[in-house]
Amino acid sequence: MSRQEKLLLFILACVNFTHVVDFIIMMPMGPQLMRYFHLNPQEFSFIVSAYSLSAGISGFLAAFFVDRFDRKKVVLTAYIGFVVGTIACGLAPTFGWLVVARTAAGLFGGVLGAQVFSIVADVVPYERRAQAMSIISTAFSVASVVGVPMGLYLATEISWHAPFLAIGGLGLLVTGLIIRYVPRLDGHLQRGGTKFNPLDVITSILRSPNQLRALWLTTTIMLGHFSIIPLLSTYLVANVGLGESNLYLIYLVGGLVTIFTAPLVGRLADQRGKYPVFVVFALLSMIPMFLLTSMQPSSLTYILSVNAFFFIFSNARFIPVQAMVSAVVEPQRRGGFMSMNSSVQLLGQALATYGAGLLITKTESGALIHYSWVGYLAMAIIFVSIFIARNLRPIDADSPSQLDLEQPETEQPDSTRHPVKTS
């Protein structure tokens, strides 16, 4: 892996870090926000799903035009909008305005994730792409270890506004890194013979069973995962007896273990095969899913141990899936397809989050009922995903993607542009 490739992956991981912290910080703040705004589970699920819903819509719309532009410009524009929306969350005076600000942040955030993974797929050949995806996914781990505990600390010591303002401030620094160090990323535009048609992304997907399977796989993974996640913190506090002051440990421990395991999973998937590794960890992930959603009052050690395995196995099944999904479409159409995939992913998150809120009820004492039902449904969906992934076929496994990372920022005549394969 070249120095430029490593630097690019680092900056993309920073983008992903701020994006992930902004999204997941809402969930551990559930007990505080529900108390502050007097919300029931359905109302809290709505504010979480509002971000995913708006992001899913914007990702769908972006799919029709993102492949027409340099990926750096797309990421930079979306990231600036995301940072502004996040700062607006920190300045929101009421619950209603917070919903509006979260929706605005989601509109731009919905474009970010897809373009980050598109860039990785453009730059890194398929045979070592899972390892590169694992580097990007460690942003979630670092967000859990650093971002969430710090966000909860700021929310507790200052106010619930503070975490969003801190993320927005960090986002301004990352914006500078993108402008200064990310090169022009237009290798997909330099491949001759491509005429852009706004509807091409839809017709291409509908004509390709392979791409349809990839979208179904993404949907099932999101439904299985995000039906559990949003109300997990609330359940552990209200039903299991975990103190709110210890909530940060859930994300701290989970993030720490995945920082070490994610790169190992990436290398293993590249060496042993992405599908077999996915199957193993998809099956293993059902064990902590069952234990968490049916947990009774327990010791802190037991809670953290089960949670650690949940983080490890859930993250491990996601890494090979991202590598597999990114390989079902040619580079010229990858940005549009990955935006469509991101849209499906985010809409799946919104559906899972809001659907789980409808299944769960809250007693007068604050305890949640029927969370175990959500767990059974999530396990069934993850089991189905194994059969969908079985027939997924990469189209670029034998022809590694190429991109010239040495190009200067100034425009050159077409005759002098020659994409060069990264080392």
Number of helices: 15
Quantity of strands, as a count: 2
Q: Could you please say which CATH topology applies here?
A: Growth Hormone, Chain: A
CATH superfamily: MFS general substrate transporter like domains
**What is the overall pLDDT average?**
81
How large is the radius of gyration? 21 Å
Give the low-confidence spans: 398-423
User: For the terminal residues, how far apart are their CA atoms?
Assistant: 6 Å
In order across it, which strands form the biggest sheet? 1-2
Q: So what's the oligomer here?
A: single chain
**Outline:** globular
Examine the secondary-structure arrangement and name the CATH architecture: Up-down Bundle
Percentage of β-strand residues? under 5%
Report on this model:
By secondary structure, the protein is an all-alpha fold. The protein has a single domain (3-186, 202-392), classed as MFS general substrate transporter like domains (Growth Hormone, Chain: A). The chain has helices spanning 3-24, 30-37, 41-62, 71-91, 95-123, 129-157, 162-181, 200-207, 209-226, 232-240, 247-272, 274-293, 300-326, 331-359, 371-390; strands spanning 361-362, 368-369.
Give a summary of the structure in a few sentences.
The chain has helices at residues 3-24, 30-37, 41-62, 71-91, 95-123, 129-157, 162-181, 200-207, 209-226, 232-240, 247-272, 274-293, 300-326, 331-359, 371-390, and strands spanning 361-362, 368-369.
What order do the helices and strands come in, and which of them pair?
Elements: H1 3-24, H2 30-37, H3 41-62, H4 71-91, H5 95-123, H6 129-157, H7 162-181, H8 200-207, H9 209-226, H10 232-240, H11 247-272, H12 274-293, H13 300-326, H14 331-359, E1 361-362, E2 368-369, H15 371-390
Antiparallel strand pairs: 1-2
Helix pairs in contact: 1-5, 1-6, 1-7, 3-5, 3-14, 4-5, 4-7, 5-14, 6-7, 6-11, 6-13, 8-9, 9-13, 9-14, 9-15, 11-12, 11-13, 12-13, 12-15
